[in-house]
Every structure is written in structure tokens, then in C-alpha cells.
């Protein structure tokens, strides 16, 4: 197709180089904000940490091959995140324990791998987008008197925009700071995307990297997480694209992924057949025929999760429709469509599954930017300014209302959701929040006064606005978030009750206790529960309504030794019971 018909319209000034230190700075602020100095939150965050702690606590290493939460088998995921997290705790927790309590040292050390996952994500998105952006197919229209950007400058601009757009994606910001499988899975999908793009020019390194990425995704979240990535990588080799002559290298990728997967699966099946059977059942039974509720939840939740990239991703597919088979559109399109298709065949979908659409949507959105008219780009800039200025002001207003009581209605609404919370002001956190707010004001001022022509200006505003909002949340509101989402205090109460009532050698079993709650009790106070039916102590999780009306189990046949709950929870409660045998 004639390059002059390309929908991209750009001048050289629109691709001026974005400062590398600035990119590194905002990336560091993004991942470090809210990563440390907080409690693990329910559910995925604390569950991931519990598997790491259990893996280190069992001397035979069985919980590393088959992840567990205490004595509870955790078969929903693979072992890779547990391996890396346990190694980090083993290496670095002793260092942190010199300054904080032992379990807090383990919590801090367990989050260091998030820096690795984030680094893989950023590098893969940038270099993968750069490789596709400098190909001949996406190059902008040649201007009559020259002045169009060079190939390298254009590719760099696309890569910068893609990286900033992934930082601006609303749905993953919370998840990227969890000690769960989600940050790792996003990183390995991004690595697979980069590997496919690399295969065009360097098939050996690209196919090897692809095999490693597919194996890592499988070891992170089994078939639920790896199947969409595998299908996307296979179908990325379109007959009309530059990848098609390299399709034979997929056999090498498949061989590497298969060998690594079997190196875990075969020993697991021999040593832990029960765990392996339950893992297989979990994965196989998660796939069903499309259900109406799942489709409706996708239509309801995905638009906010993928904001602000999904409208631009769809626009890129439309604007580049005549180039759909070209790698710069087809490859990210496959990585976006296959997670969506697979989600339609899952029994239950939520953010861990949605997360696989974030990277390809950001890459596609970056290729939409050169097709937009200047007036449209300016409008989007001002939308980002207004939107994130409003969110930042809202965070400050809520914090002010909580601490001063004005405005009264906002204060009432917040205190109703945080009943029992004792107001704490951390002045260092307030100072950091003020600095972040001033940085956002400075960024807006730069946009207003300098009127930059660079096409990445809107993505800088979007990423900067989201990072500012996130920074304000995890500084001003961290004590409240810990109070609402952490089980530290109720776990301490339970540990004290067990010290007072548990006889030497007496076991405790759980009744109705959720996975996240079990993980929290294990992490905070090393409380584990037996499955033995002869245990006379029972920790029961029930609703306050069922306890009041006497419908909770053992209401008539057990002695209540202790009961407690999180102050912010209006329904959930725990009871320590003693039953007669």
C-alpha cells in the first residue's frame, strides 16, 4: 500500500525526545508509592504473601513445589510468584528485621519482586512498541516540503506514549502493588509481546524469550493466565505480515515452554498428587460455555478498568484498518482480543483476568495518537487536566472533611464507612502529598505556558494525573486504608484469645473462614488451623446478623470464648468457640 495514504500525520517537532530521567522518575514514583509501609490487604495481596511465608516455614520445601496457606492447599495459581517472593524474604527479611518486627520485615521483603515485575513490564512495553513503531508500515505521511519525523524518532515517540499510557491505566495501578500473581502475569504478557516483535528481526532471541515468557506465565497462573498469551502469540503470525516467514520458530518457543512447564509438573504430580489433581480441576472447571452474567460484567467493568486507553485502542484499529495485518496493529490486537475471547469462556472473571488487556490496549492507543488532529489532541489534554485536577481535589477534600468535620455531610459519609477509626495524621505523609500536588500544578502550568508541540504531552498529563491521585491516596489515606482492608488488629486479638484459652497441644479448626482471612491470621500472628475433626477449639467466621438471631453454626452447643471483628466491617465477625466431644 502506498505510504502516502497512511493515516499518521506528524511533523518532526511532534516527536521531540522526552527526557529519559523524567520517564524513570515518574516510573519510580508510580511503583514506590504505596508499595511499602502498609499492611497486606485482603484478599489476593495477603494470600500471595501467605504462600511465600508458608513456603519458607516448611523444612521439606513441599510448599514451594505445591503452594499452600498453612495447611490449606492453594491451587488457584502456579508456584513462580511464591518462589521469587520466598527467595526475596529469605535474602532480605533479616536486613529489614533489624529495624522492624519480624513479620513486618517479611512483608517489606515480599514486595521487592514487584520492582522486578514492574521493570520487566516497562522495558518490554517500551522496546516492543519501539520495534513496531520503527517498521515501515506505521511511518507517517511524507510531507511535500519535508519535515516529517525520522524513523527512530517516530518509533521512540510511540514507545514513550505506550509506556506513559500503561502508567495512566486506571485498573492496574492498585494491582501492580500487590504481592499476588497479577503484577507478574502482566509483566510476562508484556515480555511475550516484546518477544513476538523481536522475532521479526532476530528470530533466535525472540523465540527463546517468547518460550521463557510463556513458561513463566504458565507457572504464574496456570492455564487461566497463560492460555490467552499463548493463543495471542500463535495468531500474531499472520500470513500477510512480516512475522509469517518466522512462524517455524514457534516450535522452539513451544519446546522451551513445554520443557520448563514439565520440569515443575512431573515432580509435582509424583510428590503431591492431591495438589496436582485439585490444580487441574480448578483450571479445567474454570472454562465453561459463555454465560450472560460474565458477558454483562465485562461490558460493565472493562471500560473503567482500561480507562483511558480503550477508546484510543479501538480508534487505532479503525484508523489503521487497511493496515490491520501489519505487525504494529495485528500483534497488539491479538494480545488484546484473545484475553477478551478467553474471558467469555470463564466461569468467573475479575481484575486478574482484565489485567491482560491493559498492555495491548496501551500499545494500540499509542498508535492512534499520530492519526488524531491537533484540535482533538488539545481537547484530550484539557480533559486530562480537568479530570485529574478534580480527582486530586476530591482526595484532599475528603481528607480535610475527615480531620476537621467540614463539610459535615462528607464527614458523615466517611465516618459511617470507617466506624471506630481513630484519626491519625502523619505529617511526613502530608508533606509528600503537598509536594506531589505542587508537582501536578507545575505539570499543568508547563502545558499552559509552554504549549508543547510534542505528541506525548497528553500521555504525560494522563500518567502524571493518575500518579498524583494515587500518591495522594497512599499518603493521606493510608491509615484509613489499612484500617478498612487489614486484619492486623483482629488477628492480634485472636492471638491473645488463643494464649488465654488454648491448652497445650490443643488444636484449632476453622469453620467458614475465608482464604484471605486465613492468610491474614497466618501472616500477622502465625495462626494456622487444623482439619482434624477432634479439635475442640473452633474459629468461626459468621455474619453479625446470624449471630444475633442464633442461626450461626454451634449457636446452641458451644461456649463462646472470644468474639471480634474489624471496626469498619458492618457484617463480618469472628468467634472462638469451645465444643464438647
Describe the structure.
The structure is a single chain. The chain is built from 24 helices and 6 strands. Helix 10 packs across helix 11 and helix 22 (488-501) packs across helix 23 (515-525). The chain folds into 3 domains: 20-35 and 111-371, no CATH class; 374-485, no CATH class; 488-579, no CATH class. Strand 5 (558-564) and strand 6 form a beta hairpin. With 581 residues, the protein is mostly helical. It has helices spanning 20-32, 44-57, 62-65, 80-96, 102-110, 112-133, 151-168, 181-199, 203-235, 250-271, 273-285, 292-305, 309-319, 327-343, 351-354, 358-368, 374-404, 408-417, 427-450, 457-476, 478-485, 488-501, 515-525, 544-548; strands at 68-69, 72-73, 508-511, 537-543, 558-564, 572-579. The protein starts with 19 loop residues before the first helix and ends with a strand. A 4-stranded mixed beta sheet has the order 3-4-6-5. The radius of gyration is 26 Å and the shape is globular.
Amino acid at each position: 500500500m502506498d505510504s502516502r495514504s497512511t493515516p499518521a500525520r506528524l511533523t518532526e517537532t511532534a516527536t521531540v525526545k522526552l527526557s529519559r530521567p523524567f520517564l524513570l522518575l515518574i516510573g519510580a514514583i508510580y511503583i514506590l508509592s504505596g508499595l511499602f509501609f502498609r499492611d497486606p490487604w485482603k484478599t489476593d495481596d495477603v494470600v500471595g504473601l501467605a504462600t511465600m511465608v508458608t513456603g519458607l516455614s516448611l523444612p521439606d520445601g513441599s510448599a514451594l513445589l505445591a503452594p499452600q496457606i498453612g495447611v490449606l492447599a492453594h491451587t488457584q495459581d502456579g508456584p513462580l510468584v511464591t518462589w521469587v517472593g520466598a527467595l526475596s524474604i529469605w535474602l532480605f527479611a533479616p536486613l529489614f528485621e533489624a529495624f522492624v518486627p519480624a513479620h513486618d520485615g517479611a512483608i517489606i521483603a515480599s514486595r521487592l519482586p514487584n520492582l522486578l515485575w514492574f521493570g520487566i513490564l516497562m522495558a518490554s512495553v517500551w522496546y516492543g512498541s519501539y520495534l513496531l513503531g520503527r517498521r515501515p508500515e506505521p511511518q507517517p505521511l511524507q510531507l511535500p516540503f519535508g519535515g516529517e519525523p525520522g524513523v527512530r524518532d517516530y518509533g521512540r515517540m510511540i514507545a514513550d506514549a505506550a509506556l506513559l499510557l500503561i502508567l495512566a491505566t486506571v485498573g492496574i495501578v492498585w494491582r501492580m502493588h500487590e504481592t499476588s500473581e497479577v503484577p507478574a502475569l502482566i509483566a510476562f504478557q508484556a515480555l511475550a509481546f516484546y518477544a513476538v516483535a523481536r522475532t521479526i528481526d532476530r528470530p533466535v532471541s525472540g523465540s527463546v524469550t517468547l518460550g521463557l515468557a510463556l513458561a513463566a506465565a504458565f507457572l504464574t497462573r496456570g492455564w487461566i493466565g497463560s492460555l490467552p498469551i499463548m493463543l495471542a502469540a500463535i495468531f500474531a503470525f499472520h500470513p500477510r505480515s512480516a512475522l509469517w516467514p518466522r512462524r517455524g520458530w514457534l516450535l522452539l518457543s513451544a519446546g522451551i515452554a513445554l520443557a520448563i512447564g514439565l520440569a515443575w509438573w512431573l515432580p509435582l504430580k509424583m510428590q503431591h498428587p492431591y495438589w496436582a489433581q485439585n490444580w487441574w480441576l480448578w483450571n479445567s472447571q474454570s472454562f465453561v460455555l459463555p454465560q450472560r452474567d460474565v458477558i454483562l460484567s465485562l461490558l460493565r467493568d472493562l471500560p473503567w478498568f482500561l480507562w483511558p486507553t480503550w477508546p484510543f485502542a479501538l480508534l487505532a484499529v479503525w484508523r489503521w484498518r487497511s493496515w490491520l495485518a501489519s505487525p504494529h496493529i495485528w500483534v497488539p490486537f491479538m494480545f488484546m482480543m484473545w484475553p477478551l475471547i478467553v474471558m467469555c469462556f470463564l466461569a468467573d472473571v475479575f481484575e486478574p483476568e482484565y489485567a491482560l488487556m491493559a498492555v495491548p490496549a496501551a500499545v494500540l492507543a499509542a498508535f492512534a495518537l499520530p492519526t488524531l488532529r491537533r484540535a482533538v489532541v488539545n481537547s484530550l489534554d484539557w480533559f486530562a487536566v480537568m479530570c485529574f485536577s478534580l480527582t486530586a481535589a476530591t482526595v484532599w477534600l475528603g481528607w480535610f472533611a475527615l480531620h476537621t468535620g467540614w463539610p459535615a455531610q462528607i464527614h458523615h459519609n466517611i465516618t459511617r464507612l470507617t466506624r471506630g477509626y481513630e484519626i491519625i495524621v502523619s505529617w511526613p505523609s502530608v508533606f509528600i502529598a503537598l509536594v506531589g500536588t505542587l508537582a501536578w500544578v507545575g505539570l499543568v502550568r508547563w502545558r499552559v505556558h509552554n504549549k508543547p508541540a510534542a505528541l506525548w504531552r497528553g500521555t504525560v498529563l494522563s500518567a502524571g494525573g493518575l500518579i498524583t491521585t494515587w500518591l495522594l491516596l497512599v499518603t493521606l489515606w493510608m491509615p484509613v486504608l489499612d484500617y478498612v482492608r487489614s486484619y492486623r488488629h483482629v488477628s492480634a486479638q485472636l492471638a491473645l484469645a488463643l494464649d488465654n484459652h488454648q491448652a497445650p497441644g490443643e488444636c484449632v479448626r476453622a469453620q467458614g473462614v475465608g482464604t484471605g482471612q486465613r492468610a491474614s491470621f497466618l501472616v500477622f500472628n502465625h495462626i494456622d488451623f487444623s482439619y482434624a475433626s477432634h479439635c475442640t477449639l473452633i474459629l468461626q467466621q459468621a455474619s453479625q446478623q446470624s449471630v444475633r438471631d442464633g442461626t450461626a453454626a454451634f449457636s446452641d452447643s458451644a461456649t463462646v470464648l472470644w468474639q471480634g471483628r474489624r471496626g469498619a466491617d458492618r457484617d463480618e465477625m469472628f468467634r472462638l468457640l469451645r465444643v464438647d466431644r
